[in-house]
Amino acid sequence: MSSNKASPVTKLFNACSPALVWLLSGFYFLVFSFDISVPLTLDKFDPGPTLLPRLLGAGLLCGGLVQILHNLLVAQTSQIHPAKHGSARLATTVFFFILLLPVAGFHVTAAMFSIIFMFLMKVGWLRAILSTTIIVVVIHLIFIEIFMIALPSIPF
Amino acid sequence: MTFGIFVGSTPGLTATMAVALIIPFSFQLEKEAALAMVIGVSFTAIFAGDIPATFLRIPGTPASAAATLDAHHLALKGKGKQTLLVNLLCSTLGGVLGVVMLIVLAPQLAAFALEFGPFEYFWLCITGLILGVTVSSGRRPFVGLSAAGLGFAFSLVGVDPLTNQSRFVFNIGELSEGLNFIPAMIGLFGMSEVLKTVVGDSADRHKTPVPGPFRLRESLSIILRHFPTVVQSAITGTAIGALPGAGADIAAWGAYGVSEKTTLKPNPPFGQGNWKGVISPTGANNSAVAAAWIPALVFGVPGDAVTAIVLGAFLVYDITPGPTLFESGNADFIFSIALITQVFLIPAGILGILFFSQIAKLPRGIILTAVVIFSVVGAFAMNNSLTDVWVMFGFGIFGVLLERQRVPLAPLILGMILGPKIEEYLRTGLISYRGEFSAAFTSHISRAFVILLAGIVLFPLLRFLRKKRVN
Predict the structure, then answer these.
(1) Please, is B101 exposed, middle or buried when counting C-beta atoms within 10 Å of its C-beta (0-12, 13-18, 19+)?
(2) CB contact under 8 A, A21 and B380
(3) Which of A4, A108, B180, B439 is paired with B186 by a 20 to 30 Å CA distance?
(4) B372-381 pLDDT, tens per residue?
(5) pTM score, two decimals?
């Protein structure tokens, strides 16, 4: 859709959407900076823990507003395309991988995730199983055996 | 050194971690062997961080983040091994120059470093941040600046180090330690790249990094052609590395910025596979590692986290840092080990490159799956914390959203790294000078930084206006 033929509402939406990140984060840091308590013992020359969150919050808000103005005036908008199916599916797989880590332990979760992820990436079954075994064994050797890092294990 | 290559090239395991992990083993060795082991690991781990940055666009260590810009582009063009060979040789050259400067200039540079007060450090960090923003944002410096501001704001989450007050924690215990920038970096660069590549958002979705041949002759001619850049980066790296607390990551970005600003017509542009973009950060980060030893050896003040850990181990080795170190002959021993390490870095580095280039030949589906699992494990391994894994995942999704809007990711991570330092130096400076911000402009060093900063901001603006007038 060309931005010249777009309705004013669409134009405004297209101008605002890329600036949402800055506006929302600016609003968040600015508003919640008022929740930060200032200690009574604060050095009288120390601007305190609230100065920079407020400055940055205000700066991000201004940045977002300037970007909206710029997008409206120059009419160059970078529209956000809806997320594709693939991205949601893969992100969900990673989400469940992390979610199940403390429940089923690293070895089981990583093996399940690896096979499913490779299947989604159209890797053959045999290759997927072989690669999964190698990845899990290599990570076990590096992190658990050599570096002695306690990766999540099955809790029972 | 092989251990250093191994740890440095594993995303999530930093050079600091490599040294921390090797020190318990070193206690079982003779003093000389233990020192050689620890120094060897610190140098190799910094280079090794560039290997996954080149092949996978995941920096192995924070000092390798600047290397992802050009090196990964070159790997996509089938020059993976050649890029890493140039990287390795320049890293060695940078390291040798850094060690030579350490030997020759140690006392003078250390005295200069001690002139830095909180405001001087404040300006140094601001200059590093702005330089990083202008370099990595291309034609959208304003968006880059916003990204750096957002990264800075993220870095404020947690307990305020000066007053111990919680900020943006909302009674979530895990957040009180703040958002660690290493899981964030793994998420932004690693996880987001996987999601982007898979769904086809990435312009390079059909391209996979190709190791290609080493092309030794061509690589040597590239280094010879850009030798001034190697020297310039080594000097920048040494100057920044000698400052306590500055570190190899700021040195890498600083050298990259200096290189970009001093190149009149870069072809190809920086960030799109320019050799200077590969040479400058790698030359600087290794020389910064050497330079970090200057204040450590002369005054016992650690230059970075790695030297801080090693200084602690020195006590076990019965070595006392300070002026007596030079009289006892221990300093000469340390210098010679640092030089020999640079020579052995080449075979150890080549082994690492050969190993990684075999991995890069695997089908894309297998590599991407391994990247996700290593990202999760790497994020977890930092503090044995699942919160860090969620932070990595969150930043991965956030990275995809930002890149869809063509927001550069490097300034965001730079803001997270430098943010806490900027805040600490600013507030400590204000407390020391009784609230007078004008004191930030009184010393020669501060003024020099302000002038440099003005130049960085105004020079591109004037160039843009002149171009407009000519057109």
Answers:
(1) buried
(2) no
(3) A108
(4) 898 888 888 8
(5) 0.78
